[in-house]
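Service request form, structural biology core

Requester: graduate student, group of Dr. S.
Request type: structure prediction, single chain
Budget code: on file
Notes: please return the result as structure tokens.

Sequence provided:
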Amino acid sequence: MLISRSDRGALARWWFTIDRALISAVLLLMAMGVLVSMAASPPVAERIGLDSFHFFRNQLYFLFFAVIGLVTLSFFDIAWVRRAGIAGFIGSLALMVLALKFGPEIKGAHRWINLGPLNLQPSEFAKPCYVVAASWFLAERTRRPDMPGHIIAYVMGLVFIGLLVVQPDFGQTALVVATTGAMLLVFGIPWVVIFGLLGVGVIGGVFAYLLVPHVTSRIDRFLSPENGDTFQTDTAMEAFRNGGFLGTGPGGGQAKLVLPDAHTDFSFAVVGEEFGAIACLALMAFFIFIVMRVLSKAKAENDPFAALALSGLVTMFGLQAVINMGVNVALLPAKGMTLPFISSGGSSLLGTAMAMGFVLALARGSSQQQPSRLSLSEQAA
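Core staff response, request fulfilled:
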């Protein structure tokens, strides 16, 4: 055996404390994303005048850095996760502000910023960093009642959500709001406050529907598909029907030939058509396994910060998967949201790898900590 338990090096500590089942599931999802990108992206690239393998090469390029980032972050101890989360959140917010001022307008939104040869979406990096930073401030409230950590966390959330609305990016706004609500439930906030926040979210959604034309259009098409253009969702549903249980085989699908976002928002439909319902169920099983495994670790966690961060990160990961799949099967209004690790998109891939790197580090770090006598709910009381 190359590494023994008597070793005291960083690699040995990492090897004997990392959740191997969890990191294996994450790496397998990444590998599946490469396969889906190979199947879905060439026709999209050809339609817009690019080389057939343009998006596939980009996926491999970003995957290389995503794996490095995932493994590197998994070596962090809990203190370094906290530092990285806070620093990353501040930096990502600064980039979001710069994107509003100097970033290109794409489909009516200012979500991206050009950094040399890279075109990045800062909000994808802000999401995991926000969860980590907010979790730490909330946890500090349980340790030091004199510190207004919960107030700081609320302000952070409002600033982040405000920037998402201004971009505008209402899909990510809904995701961040839902994740924040889940974290507050874990933190132990009173139900009356939760219902109050839910009411604010509903009011915000109503105003978005009334005041933002593209939001109005998407919701109207969802509620009354016979009265609007539902080409993408109709094509996605047809892809699932064509695929049946076993699929048409790699390269045999038709949806990717006409769907403009076959490699991103509707990659799940490509999986359904070419690999069948059995592949869709297997993919869903991977997401469920990751979510349930991380939630079980969060439940058993005695460190308030680790419990909150693990819960928030995996909730965001799972909700994003549910939203993307729900759109693909016409259960939710269309949103520009990727399927984690599966859809093409460098920022999404790197941001999700960052989130899972934090998760692996926190899950690994907790096994090296002395357990506290108080649970999170008891400390919050």
